[in-house]
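Now for a sample.
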Amino acid sequence: MPKIIHRIGGFVAPLCIALFWTSTVLVELFGSHAAVAQLKSLIVTPGLWILIPSIAMAGGSGVFMGKTRPGRLVDTKKNRMPFIAANGLLVLVPCAVVLNRLATAGNFDSTFYVVQAIELIAGPINLALMGMNVRDGLRMAGRLRAAPAQV
């Protein structure tokens, strides 16, 4: 059961972040302020209600499964998780909430765009870290071979 929970959380969390990031870029480039406000509202509700549990599912099940498994890849994944969680909970979630409040109030000022820039930088960082954890998990499961050493 933990493997299934881990797979679901490990699939949904990066999918949410990628969807939020891509839709944000597209609506900022091609949408109106009303469209931006609508998107920010959707990212907070229901978006964060999907993202936060999926990160918790992936992280919690990963910790559970990693307790009995030694190795460098397990340790590497464990060391990445605090950064993923901190970036998600201390940067991405607050940015989403602040951006939603600002957009709903029609405040598309410099504060909005600074917070938006922070969010647009933090999202790909989390995606990269999550991607590295997925890669290492696939290697641990034997579904992906390690890259050959370069000479």
Summary: The chain has a mean pLDDT of 93. Residues 2-140 form one domain.
